[in-house]
Amino acid sequence: MNLEMISEITLQDIHAFLGYLKKNYRSKPATLARKTASIRMFFKYLCNKMKLIPNNPAQDLESPKLGKRLPKYLTLEQSRELLQTVKTPTANTHGNHDNSTRDFAIITLFLNCGMRLSELTGINISDIDFENNKLTVIGKGDKERTIYLNKACVNAIHSYLAVRPHDGVKGDARNALFLSEQRKRISNRTVQYIVKQEFRAAGIDANKYSVHKLRHTAATLMYQYGQVDIRALQELLGHESIATTQIYTHVDSEQVRNAVESNPLANES
Fold it and tell me: Active site residue: 40, 73, 102, 116, which one?
């Protein structure tokens, strides 16, 4: 396709192309939005920057509206069941090692602090301030933030440190909080495997939920049960924009039903 052909493309042609993708390939709104953004940038480059075509047909091209997707999360009951399951050594023995204390500490931190996977695997023992019950993690963009530890987290960490291997630990992992069976810093993939195994042991669909869903769970439980201020939740989760945090302000259908039932006019007939 040469420049002469490209210069003849109209806005209607672009809409026809996007319609073709939606009909023939069943492209989702998110996919169409990416295509739209690419098309806009392409024609902007040719017309505005390089001056290779006289008109920009994508100038008034609008992105498709994206429906808001609520984050998947475990209920309070499922979260408690998961923690109870991890405590059971028989469900957590891999090879000749009982990792239940380590795995319990990992899932406790996920469910209580809402940290990211990379943040958890990157924790060093020296990052933990036991006197003030807090730790420092490195989040997205190498941004450092403080996470405060509640009683459950502190107890879980102390219990793990009491059985954490010391001999044979690889040099660069001596300061790592969580270790693998090879006595190296635990990897993201190993943690993902552990969490999937624990989901299955607790009767939770491991295909539906993931490590990141534990972050969603922590945030949702704090918002629903702790009535945490949205700004405080943003700080805790390390979100750059509060718009990202606002996905956790959703309410479930039972809350909506209760709101209607609590209307003072509910019993009027």
Answer: 116
Whether 215 sits among the annotated catalytic residues: the reply is yes
Q: At 259, is the pLDDT very low, low, confident or very high (cuts 50, 70, 90)?
A: low
The single residue of 34, 87, 97, 140 carrying the catalytic annotation is 140
Beta bridge partners of 135: 128, 147
Across residues 156-174, what is the average pLDDT? 92
- 239 is annotated as an active-site residue: yes
For the question of residue 116 being annotated catalytic, the response is: yes
Q: Which two tokens stand for residue 56?
A: 């920009």
Check if 34 is active-site.
no
Instruction: Give the separation between CA 127 and CA 117, rounded to whole angstroms.
Output: 16
Full-model pTM = 0.68
Helix axes 211-226, 100-113, angle to 10 degrees: 50
**Active site includes 185?**
no
> What residues are paired with 129 via a beta bridge?
134
Active site residue 97: no
Q: How far apart, in Å, do the first and last CA atoms of the chain sit?
A: 70
Q: Which of 40, 164, 215, 216 is catalytic?
A: 215
CB 156 within 8 A of CB 149: no
- Which residue blocks in the chain are alpha helix, DSSP H? 3-6, 11-24, 29-44, 76-86, 100-113, 117-121, 151-163, 188-201, 211-226, 230-237, 242-245, 253-261
What domains can be seen in the chain, in order of their start residue? 10-67 (no CATH), 76-252 (1.10.443.10)
pLDDT digits (tens, 9 = 90+) for 66-106: 766 667 889 999 999 999 999 876 544 444 457 999 999 99
Long-range CB contacts (within 8 A, 24+) of 186-192: 186/121, 187/121, 188/117, 188/118, 188/121, 191/106, 191/117, 191/120, 191/121, 192/117
Cβ proximity of 147 and 134 under 8 Å: yes
